[in-house]
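Ticket #4471: structure output looks truncated?

Reporter: J.K.
Steps to reproduce: submitted the chain below (419 residues) through the standard prediction queue, then opened the result file.
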Amino acid sequence: MSEEVTVPQSTTKDGESHPPYGTAAESDAVYARHVSASHVALLPPQMNIHLGEREGARVRDAYSGEWYWDCWRQGSKFNLGHRHPAVVAAYRDAIDHVDSGTWALASGYRARLAEKLAASTHHALPGVTFGVGGADAIEIAVHAARAHTRRTGLVSIAENSYHGGTDLCLSLSGISAHRRERYLVGSTHVTRVPFNDLDAMRRAVSRETAAVVIEPTPAQAGYPVPLPGYLEGVRRICDEQGTVMIVDETQTGLGSCGGGVVWQYQQHDLVPDVLTTGKGLGGGVYPISAAVMAEPVWDSYTRDQLVPHESTYAGTDIGCLVASAVLDLTMDAGFLDRVDRLARRFADGFAGAPFAFSQIGTNMGLRTETPLATAVQLLEAGVLVLPSGSDQVVPFRPVLTLGDEEADTVIALVRQALG
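Returned output as attached by the reporter:
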């Protein structure tokens, strides 16, 4: 990153300026004072970017003026890039007509989005409950599984899985051991097993198990490919034990996995009992998530209840209008075909490169023994990524709306930086 320069600030009609502070140092000082001093201290200087302008697949540092290709996508929140015109238009139209609405009343906007989510599963999962973030969706899914089975036990993946920051989600996440210890989070009802190990899964799941909670590929592990028959085997084990299969597609779904499908599970011969989604569902402009359920589980969860998940900002009218626009884009066959071609372009572009990588669609992982150093190398080349909690991979997620020339530019920058 180049030296800090003084950047002119623009002012809104309400008197707020963009960026909010005149220099990066001033911004960091206030952040450290009121948000997190350790966050600022632990960021390597080269990675301490302050987002200013953002458009499509690129973001600009507010103080250095440097532009970066966003290949982090913040866990797929920015699948459609930054400030996608159709998403921004839906947001603007929404706030011209509605506000957040209320969870205590039935909402047509909520109904329309639920209808579209059900259609994205080919109506195999017709029941929907909304949350604000991915952790909400997992909590809803587990509550539904326990209501349906009347059991408490849970099974999740041991290494590099991540489901959110609530106590329940931390107990399920393989990557969160240090946070469980720090926050005194117990894992009384949770058994964690290795990914791609059906024997371990079979030993762990029993008649006491309410649900298996699994990402179809652990994003923080750099999207390792599931072994042939693995996910189908997990489905069979769940069926044998009367256990609910919860598939967390917060970081894999909404078209990002390629193959011409909306959800990664659709690349396999199975249907989960519950699908969870978030992040990209809000198009990068509004927080919204959902648990999408098979009829029996949904019925057990919602029967004789006004609202089973009471949350002030879950499934707001504004959020549902934004997410509806996201699904209209994401479910379009032309869009899905384009994502598939983009994924193949990256596979071809990285073929023979001096680094190993895993790939499921546009979801990739660069294999490296020095994730932080690798992320810094890429950032200095103009490609924004962040290392995950794994010590052997850097998640690499180019924006799904990249054009061919843009993709070729990113590929060249990565090969040059890591060559």
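Triage note (M.O.): checked the attachment and the full token line is present. The mean pLDDT is 94.
Status: closed, working as intended.
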